């Protein structure tokens, strides 16, 4: 004889809507909220999972017992509101950020040493690179397609903009097609600088996969650092760096976006082909 028990479990879910001000399109736009994920709205939703368990009589082989669970891939919940109701759906996007495998080479990268009040790019690649420092008019003069030879360093004084920031675009070629980007922004308090790594302009979506081979430095690793007490971001060569860099626009609005913040006096440092110094 089989006994069927139905178990109803209520799971509280948190759906977070992040409002950010850092645009990762080809234009580099920062709004007043340029910390990428400073304002969040939390809505409590209840999802019900039904689990059906079939129990065999005592003495029957346990291998014949079975359990099955079903959960809708997408749900819609009507939330009470003053006026019209609000529909919330669970995301089903395929652009989900996944962490890198553990035990990677990035942990062995040599330390980067930022320079006070400066933004630097260490070119540890075996080839030359070109750097353009792009910002709006409030940021002051830009740098256009500056040659940075192999095993040398690009430097600029940290530029302060009016509610926007700087994109350091890096390419193997002078035409700057599909550049790798290092980004930094001095906050309105003029004391804090945020910084990040972005592959969004250089990667190509191909057959549902992210092709990063056109991103300069991708094959031998990239890293970013500021002060000693501030976050360091490291990307392993030939691995889609979904945890420590932007490979999905606005990090799919998830928590834990890979953007650091530090005292502007500490400076910011970026490195291409970091494995070559290991």
Query: What is the number of helical segments per DSSP (H or I, 4+ residues)?
Result: 0
Cα(first) to Cα(last) distance is 65 Å
Broad shape: globular
Strand order of the largest sheet: 10-9-12-13-14-19
In CATH terms, what is the fold-level topology of the domain at 118-276?
Answer: Thaumatin
Low-confidence stretches: 1-103
InterPro entries: CetA-like
Signal peptide: 1-17
Biased composition (Low complexity): 83-104
Keywords: Signal
What labels describe this entry?
278 residues, mainly beta, Thaumatin, six-stranded antiparallel beta sheet, five-stranded mixed beta sheet, globular, signal, CetA-like
Structural features, described:
This protein has about 280 residues and is an all-beta fold. The chain has a domain at about 120-275: Thaumatin. It contains no helices and 20 strands. Strands 10-9-12-13-14-19 form a 6-stranded antiparallel β-sheet, with no helix packed on it. It has a 5-stranded mixed β-sheet with strand order 11-8-20-17-18, with no helix packed on it. The N and C termini lie far apart (about 65 Å). Keywords: Signal. InterPro entries: CetA-like.
